[in-house]
Specification:
Layout: H1 2-30, H2 47-54, H3 56-88, H4 92-107, H5 110-123, H6 130-154, H7 160-166, H8 171-182, H9 184-200, H10 203-208, H11 216-223, H12 230-267
Helix pairs in contact: 1-12, 2-12, 3-6, 3-9, 3-11, 4-6, 6-9, 7-8
Protein name: ABC transporter permease
GO biological process, one term: transmembrane transport
Transmembrane segments: 12-32, 62-85, 106-124, 229-255
């Protein structure tokens, strides 16, 4: 009976993995298709990648997406980390109220946030474009960073920074050399979530942009109305980019830990 359950569990796991990854594999394969067909592979070709790099509008949307994602990630990570550290030193009532407000944008449907930000920019007469999209991305990324950093801060001794200052450290040194290294995993995970949310966003970006400024999601949406295999090419490049980033993030700590173990062995 137990063996049957294990077999069924493994089969379900394999089916789930196939369900998630087969479409991505299918997309990668057809990005090298010779014809425009999205269902019939007629031969290997790099023409859609050539078309992608020769398409000025597509490359501009890609650069806009990457630049906004990077800037929004850096700003929201800094703001979110400082906010989380500040909340850890606040009273229970203040912390509870702020955390409730922080959770509200996450629980809110994106369409509501998008319309709210659009009305905000229109009310104050802000011309919609690159800056409004950047501000919107910072706005919805920051709560995710706070949620990622707060559990790490809760797990620390609340007197850690005070102990560091008692031993002669300045407040800045206590923050950068004692507190931040301890909560670095939470900061990194928050930054990764912020980058992914910004890079992937469509609904909010669509409502707050203007002046011909498009990110990749908006560009793909406009291209999806007609058959264009260039979509497969740009999507494949994004998958490769994200895969490389994830590999680097996971491999670098392993290399560091192995070096530290080797150094400890040499010293001992």
């Amino acid at each position: 009976m137990k063996k049957d359950k294990r077999i069924i569990g493994k089969i379900l796991m394999v089916l789930a993995v196939l369900f998630f990854y087969l479409p991505i594999i299918f997309m990668v394969i057809f990005s090298f298709n010779e014809s425009k067909s999205l269902t019939n592979f007629t031969g290997f070709s790099m023409q859609w990648y050539e078309s992608l790099f020769n398409n000025r509008e597509m490359m501009e949307s890609l650069s806009t997406t990457v630049s906004i994602a990077l800037i929004a990630t850096v700003v929201s990570t800094v703001v979110g980390t400082i906010s989380a550290i500040g909340l850890s030193k606040s009273g229970k009532i203040m912390k509870s109220v702020v955390m409730q407000l922080n959770d509200f944008p996450i629980m809110n449907p994106e369409i509501v946030t998008a319309i709210g930000l659009m009305l905000l920019f229109i009310t104050f007469g802000v011309k919609r474009g690159y800056m409004t999209m950047l501000l919107a991305h910072i706005c919805f990324c920051t709560p995710y960073v706070i949620l990622s950093v707060m559990p790490k801060i809760r797990s620390l001794d609340p007197n850690l920074s005070d102990a560091a200052m008692d031993l002669g450290a300045t407040p800045w040194q206590a923050l950068t050399k004692v507190l931040v290294p301890q909560i670095m995993p939470g900061i990194v995970s928050g930054a990764l979530i912020a980058f992914t949310m910004s890079f992937d966003d469509f609904i909010i970006s669509y409502f707050v942009t203007g002046g011909g400024v498009k990110n990749l999601s908006i560009m793909v949406y406009t291209m999806s109305k007609r058959v264009n295999p260039t979509i497969n090419a740009i999507s494949t490049l994004v998958v490769v980019l994200i895969t490389v980033v994830l590999l680097v993030i996971n491999i670098v700590p392993l290399i560091k830990s192995r070096r530290e173990k080797k150094n400890e062995k040499v010293v001992s």
